[in-house]
Amino acid sequence: MMEATKYQREKGYENIIKTASDLHTLDYEGAGLKGYGKPEGYLKRNVETWMKQYEASLRFSERDGNMDYLYQFLNDNRPEEERWGIVHGDLRVDNMLFSEEGGVEAVVDWELSTLGEPFTDVGLLMTPYWTEPDMPIIGGLKGQDLKEMGIPREEEFLEQYVDKTGFKELPEQLDYHLTFNAFRMSSILQGVYDRAKGGNASSAQGEQVGKLAGFVAQQGKMHAKRFMQGNRFGEGGSGSAFSGRRAFSTSAASSKGEELKQRVKTFIDEKVMPIETEVLSQGYNGGDDEWKEHPLLDGVKEEAKKAGLWNLFLPAISGCSNLEYASVAEQMGRSLIASECFNCQAPDTGNMEVLHMFGTEEQQATYLEPLMEQSIRSGFGMTEPGVASSDATNMSATITETEDGLVLNGKKWWTSNGCHPELKMLIFMGRDSDADDKPRHQQHSMVLVPFPHPGVTVERPLKVFGYTDAPHGHAEINFDNVVVPKSAYVAGKGDGFMIAQARLGPGRIHHCMRLIGMAERSLELAVRRGEERTAFGKKLKDFQVNRHYYAESRMAIDSTRLMVLNAAKKIDEGGAKNARKEIAMIKIMAPEMAMKVVDGAMQIHGGAGLSQDYPLAHFYAWARVLKLADGPSEVHLDAVAKQVIRDVEKGN
User: Fold this and answer.
1) ω into residue 347 within 30 of 0, thus cis?
2) CA 191 to CA 213: how far, in whole Å?
3) What angle do CA 32, 83, 574 make, to 5 degrees?
4) Is the dihedral of CA 543, 549, 552, 557 positive or negative?
5) Where is the Acyl-CoA dehydrogenase/oxidase C-terminal domain (predicted)?
6) In the chain, how many H helices and how many E strands?
7) What number is the average pLDDT over the span 194-202?
8) How high is the pLDDT of residue 206?
């Protein structure tokens, strides 16, 4: 189907859904197939079978804790009532033969077919929505422009299947069956790997599927966690920053998202704003306390936890889509300390997302859980002082595999949290020393480095326009023959850029919406200042130049917000790759807009706008930083231009 035309794929997927629907609604008793299998206990029986196969395939591998987690989950959460029907057992596009018009001519490979729960077939058919196209053996659709390809989005696929079958309970059970298929697939892959290591491989790719088996099990755990949240297709949906899903409901804003935004706004107004000046003054004034957490924050954070406003950036906690969380991030942007009060501050949010998506059970227990409690802090080491970091493949830091583990060398800077007193872990991204023959974006890896650690030296804090941003801060850090075990890899060797893209897409939405929050507050302050101050016989708000500023700022903020929300919606619909152009555009627009709005507010405030008495100068510094952070504007402009040219050439 991937080599077909757009029209053939459109028709093909219509017929794939029809074929699955016809199979699953077949009156098997009327067709004389009552004895085709034993439907009772199908799920329980299969979970036991695949676990036994997995355990028999561990001759050359350590046991993966994620498989035990999935086994327990699948047994504890089986649907109370299983639907019985014909199950193909391996219902994939690869097992269908198509006509030139996209019709399904035949379905092959019926070795696993029986009577049982047909939703397991649907889970397998829909698995490619959450795997990358270049995934070895499996392939996938994640991040692809599905509309351009003629392939229905996940929710469209599901809606069509439900319409044809009447199986309305499927949406709320889907994550269970996705988990089931990940569990089964991981067991199969582990078997292939085991046979390859034993010299009896059934696949030429056998050696590489050991890592893949672990990745699939990890994906299964993600589906299981979403199922446990019970919000897979609830009101307003539950699009994920990790899987690129979007809500079953297509409404742009949900009552749940609006209610959460209002709760966060009220909390900030009542709890955060009253302490903002005092908390920030500790960092502005320097001295012995500069790099300490202000004690006033402790009480506010405890109240946020009790109010259920903690870790809201994580969909598995909040149930928010990217679109819904975007409005929450805007509210947090109104105060320089708000994100911290909800444990939604960078770089910890991005690092937690990485660990949630790609971390092993041990890595999650060691770092993710304490990060979610904010009992530790983390840093992210990517940018380097010795190269043009606008091209990330220039990275000169190295990762060398030895018998003893991994040896890291290089210098990083602008590592946020690098000077934080509670820093306990750094994610180090470097180039694999033996990667010359690999594709350009498969030459780098990410590694977890505990801190403090031999060979890791914080050289100095870095200031932005004089601001240290203590205790968060930014640092230059040297890695000199730092040795860590091979288990410190995140995901796997060569996965650095894949992880970076998964981390950066939603993160850019958060940054841009916080800039909108800063701009909104700046405009509010400018209007109040215009009402309070008089010059040359009239209030500042009545001067035409200032009134034009108010109007132009309102238009700039609102138009940028719409652009960012559109990008968030596209991520929810098809993943970050599907929204590359939109993400690049907002990364250009939001900092420019915020700088202009904040600059005008400073002008209306006069000298006070440049002082620590108002947040405006600090807002401006942050906006200017974001013209460089997560990729400079010039790189994003070039990316947008390429897409524009490509669209015109395609006639879009």
Assistant:
1) yes
2) 9
3) 120
4) negative
5) 494-644
6) 22, 13
7) 75
8) 60
Q: Tell me how far CA of residue 469 lies from CA of 466, 597, 623, in angstroms.
A: 9, 22, 14
Q: How far, in Å, are 175, 199, 223, 575, 587 from residue 219 at the CA level?
A: 11, 28, 6, 15, 29
Instruction: Examine the pLDDT at 254 and tell me if it is beyond 70.
Output: no
Whether residue 452 is preceded by a cis peptide bond, meaning omega within 30 degrees of 0, is yes
Tell me 488's DSSP state.
Answer: G
Q: What is the pLDDT of residue 373?
A: 96
> 411 φ, ψ to 5°?
-120, 130
Q: What is the 3-state secondary structure (H, E, C) of 526-551?
A: HHHHHHHCEECCEEHHHCHHHHHHHH
DSSP class of 489: B
Distances (CA, A) of 643 to 295, 362, 581: 49, 41, 7
- Pairing state of beta strands 456-461 and 444-450? unpaired
- What φ, ψ does residue 491 adopt, rounded to 5°? 65, -85
Q: Which residues contact 401 (CB under 8 A, 6 or more apart)?
A: 432, 433, 434, 486, 493
What is the residue type of 183? F
Q: Could you give the 3-state DSSP secondary structure of residue 91?
A: coil
Residue 249: its pLDDT value, please? 34
Pairing of strands 398-402, 423-432: parallel
pTM confidence score = 0.67
Please give the Cα distance from 426 to 406 (Å, whole number).
15
User: Which sign, positive or negative, has the C-alpha torsion 58, 64, 65, 66?
Assistant: negative
DSSP 168: T
Largest Cα span, the chain: 95
Euclidean distance between CA atoms 13 and 460, whole angstroms: 57
Q: How far is CA 335 from CA 267, 375, 473, 610, 628, in A?
A: 12, 22, 17, 17, 21
DSSP for 302-370, please give it.
HHHHHTT-SSTT-HHHH---HHHHHHHHHHHHTSTTHHHHTT--TTHHHHHHHHHHH--HHHIIIIIHH
Please indicate whether residue 142 or residue 610 has the higher confidence score (pLDDT).
610
Beta-strand relationship, 423-432 and 405-416: unpaired
Yes or no: say if 410 and 430 are a contact pair by the CB < 8 Å rule.
yes
**Crossing angle for the helix pair 544-574 and 496-532, to the nearest 10 degrees:** 150
**Residue 227 parent element (H or E):** helix 209-229
Joined together, the tokens standing for residue 592 give 């420019």
- Residue 378's H or E segment, with its range, is strand 377-381
Omega before residue 471 within 30° of 0, cis: yes
